[in-house]
Sequence to fold (309 residues):
Amino acid sequence: MKRVLSIVCLCLLAVNAQAQQRIEALPVQTVPAVETPADVVRDFMYAEQARTCAELKSFARDTVLKDADFIEAAQNRNTRKAAVAASKFATILANTLDTDFVFYHPNTRFFVRVNDKNYRGRMRLSSEAANSPSLCYWERLPSQDVVYSVLLKLDGDKTGYLKMSKKLTRMVKNVPDALSRFGKVRVYTALDKAGLKKMAWFKMRRAEPDKTKFSGWCTAQNLAFLSSIGSGRALAKKQQRKLLKMADGNETFALPELNLTGGSLALNGLDGERLGAVVYALGTAPAVKDSDDAAECENTENILYRFFE
Fold:
């Protein structure tokens, strides 16, 4: 009888072991993560930065850095001739890669903008940028433009640097399309007010040939709106301030009184300080073409432009 019971126990143990093996062999079932608007904005901006960095580096190495006139002028420390030699490439970059600025830095303290004799001055490169053979990063120019820059150190001893920069407004121009599946969207670019010169900002905006509507100097907390694009509602100044206040330091937020949800993505410089942010607002309300509040906002902005002219 004991022998029979032993055989039965052994059989049960074998069956149980086989069952455990079969259970362990089953593939792990994972639930696909739901992509949020914050994920879309973050991934889009990282992809846009990587694409811009790769394209501008490739263009510079294949053209500018192989141009005999530019290299000779850089080696001779002739800033004027280096800018003239690079001028044809600046035109190509503007027309094909939406690049707003091309700079030649003869050293780490001084710069000239190619194709603009009046745009030159002092702008110190950080030690991290100066010691790197190439670098892509966010920065604020003396004109107060927040740009994504691609910096390349020229070969040779003390021959300087070549830098190509795209404005923040160009870097975000396709964000509304990326967010369109979530509803009506309006995307704002905002600047951090720390160290921001308001008069220089207005002069910079006044010189733009095609100024963006429903944007301007609207501040709250530590952010100031620069521009807005998209099919969503154009908010009045008081509503923009609410949006800025909620966006300052918050990756996601909600404004039930405006029927809006949104979020922000901070843009930091090499030193880790925030230079600006991309703020998006999502809503189901139809787009507003010319609301009274938005029109008043635009009129106020134009008055300020004339004041700082």
